[in-house]
Design the sequence.
């Protein structure tokens, strides 16, 4: 079983930056595909980025491309999401996810989830 714990959410003004981290336990990170999703009130959980076993394999949603940067540190069993130029529409609960296979854009395909961390971007 894999446990994921996110940290780093908070309140930021539009145009600002924020970084999230997710630490995994129960399994070596290097054997998992990792991802970040977000869910705004009344909306479906949305794929943001998938991180393959190597940090060279990154797949971003168009909505965050160029503004969000993901990375993984397998030695520390941690993945990071650095967000810049944040917009009010980025407001959501952000979730870290892990998957034993290659990962997909669809949230229901992922095996493990963190508890989520709130990111609020004010005008």
Sequence:
């Amino acid at each position: 079983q894999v446990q994921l714990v996110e940290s780093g959410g908070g309140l930021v003004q539009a145009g600002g930056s924020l970084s999230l981290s997710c630490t995994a336990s129960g399994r070596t990170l290097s054997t998992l595909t990792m991802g970040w999703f977000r869910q705004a009130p009344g909306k479906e959980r949305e794929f943001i980025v998938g991180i393959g076993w190597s940090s060279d394999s990154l797949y971003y949603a168009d909505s965050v491309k160029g503004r969000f940067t993901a990375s993984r540190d397998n030695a520390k069993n941690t993945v990071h999401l650095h967000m810049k130029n944040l917009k009010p529409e980025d407001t959501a609960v952000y979730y870290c996810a892990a998957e034993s296979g290659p990962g997909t854009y669809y949230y229901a395909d992922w095996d493990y989830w963190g508890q989520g961390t709130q990111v609020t971007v004010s005008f």
Q: What stands out?
A: Residues 28 and 34 are 12 Å apart (CA to CA). The two ends are 40 Å apart (CA to CA).
